[in-house]
Write a structure and sequence with these properties.
heterodimer, A: 283 residues, alpha/beta, seven-stranded mixed beta sheet, six-stranded antiparallel beta sheet, B: mainly alpha, 0% strand, elongated
């Protein structure tokens, strides 16, 4: 854990919270750490700053001094560490051929730690007689990834379904460290298009799990899988159903009833489960 | 009789010494041949697996000096604040050190395309170096042996 930080910073962070949720490093500004004291989530500022050079060294250690090996994820603004931390990277974007090719002159890092909470989906899953297609929504940092991972494992183990995890950033499986169930397959570092289209053809799944639907391309991929008779569990950023429907990229798949349930999370707990009539009344 | 035996021994020793004085060219050749294979390994990695530098530094080579350089680079990459220095073999002169420093310090600093372009350039430079060193090695190795033998013979004649 946090092996890419300097020993001194790593010790400072872990002294603050032994199992932090988030660490933010900004050039010449105090490091902030978010974690839990067992009752609530707290944010603490450390008496520790990082220089630009230290931040760049951190990024180089993060990719084991091999920028080329993380190029595909770096152009989307993040690198996943060997131990599974997802590190969002800010800096200057480099364009090549009209699209973003990479990031340089790093200015800040946001380190997030994947958490696996076995049984966190059970309140929802136990009410199901059979696997359902479900979209999990919440603002960032409310437990979407943890929830869909657990739901996938539940479908695999309890409903004996063949579950395919499309793990774009290695956050769902953490290189096999997280138990995703006995009947699960994991496609790591694959984009959604490849995962859905080839997944349906090659892996014969009953259910496909993927994180963070964002683009129209993602929506089309989900639609393809659903029309092929495969259940889909996915997540998206939205604070409620109304805001979700304002997202043009996702509007069509909601309107087409691609999902049977939409689960709204708030601070790692289910706040509401929307059914078909809820979104149809808002369209 | 004693003079004859000493003379023969002197010829033998000076021939071996002459050869040893020029053996560094052979060591250099073997080192650069390993570097060439390592560079090819990097190129193949970029075309397919895209593994990171730490994985690539597990490259096996039968040259101790080259393995020591890779180990020092690995330490350099792993330790904080560049606490380890790159290992250079004893025969490495200023040019060798500059070339090897540039080569190893440039690894992993760029994106895929730039990395590949760099590796292709380095490939040409290394191949060029290997050819030159191989030529030098065969020339000097024979020359050193001959010179050693000649000096030994001269001393032998003087002794007699």
């Amino acid at each position: 854990m946090l092996d890419f930080l300097s020993n001194q910073l790593k010790n400072e962070v872990l002294r603050c919270f032994c199992s932090p949720y988030e660490v933010r490093l900004r050039v010449d500004k105090p490091v902030t750490v978010k974690g839990s004291n067992g009752i609530e989530v707290l944010t603490k500022k450390l008496n520790f700053t990082v220089t630009k050079k230290e931040l760049e060294q951190t990024v180089m250690r993060l990719c084991n001094h091999s920028l080329f090996s993380v190029e595909d994820s770096l152009k989307y603004g993040f690198i996943t560490s060997r131990s599974g931390e997802r590190v969002g990277i800010c800096g200057e974007t480099i364009y090549s051929g009209g699209s973003i090719a990479s990031i340089k002159n790093f200015s800040s890092l946001t380190i997030r730690f994947p958490h696996c909470v076995y049984g966190c989906c059970e309140e929802y899953a136990k009410s199901l007689g059979a696997p359902k297609s479900c979209l999990v929504i919440s603002p960032p940092f409310h437990g979407k990834t943890t929830f869909i991972r657990d739901l996938g494992r539940y479908y695999s183990d309890k409903f004996k379904q063949n579950v395919l995890f499309i793990d774009e950033r290695d956050e769902l499986s953490l290189s096999g460290k997280f138990n995703l169930g006995e009947n699960s397959d994991v496609l790591r570092f694959s984009n959604k298009r490849f995962g859905f289209y080839n997944g349906v053809r090659a892996y014969n799944p009953d259910v496909i799990i993927c994180d963070e639907l964002m683009t129209s391309e993602d929506s089309r991929s989900v639609e393809f899988a659903r029309n092929s008779g495969v259940k889909v569990v996915a997540s998206a950023h939205a604070s409620n159903l109304k805001n979700l429907l304002k997202k043009q990229e996702l509007y069509a798949i909601i309107a087409n009833n691609t999902f049977e349930d939409i689960v709204l999370l708030n601070k790692f707990k289910i706040e509401k489960i929307y059914k078909e009539q809820d979104w149809l009344s808002l369209l | 009789m004693v003079k004859f035996i000493i003379g023969i021994a002197l010829v033998g020793v000076s021939t071996v010494l002459g050869k040893r004085l020029t053996v560094k060219h052979l060591y250099r050749l073997k080192y650069y041949e390993c570097l060439s294979r390592f560079n090819l390994h990097l190129k193949q990695n970029l075309l397919h697996k895209k593994e990171d530098l730490l994985e690539l530094l597990r490259f096996k080579c039968d040259n101790e000096d080259f393995s020591a350089t890779l180990t020092s680079l690995k330490l350099n990459v792993t330790l904080e604040n560049d606490a380890s220095e790159l290992y250079f073999p004893y025969w490495a002169d200023g040019d060798d050190r500059a070339f090897l420093s540039n080569y190893f310090n440039s690894l992993g600093e760029n994106n895929l395309q730039a990395e590949m372009e760099n590796i292709v350039i380095q490939e040409n430079l290394i191949n060029d170096k290997v050819l030159k060193i191989a030529d030098k090695s065969s020339k000097f190795s024979n020359l050193g042996q001959r010179l050693g033998f000649s000096v030994g013979m001269v001393v032998f004649i003087i002794i007699l």
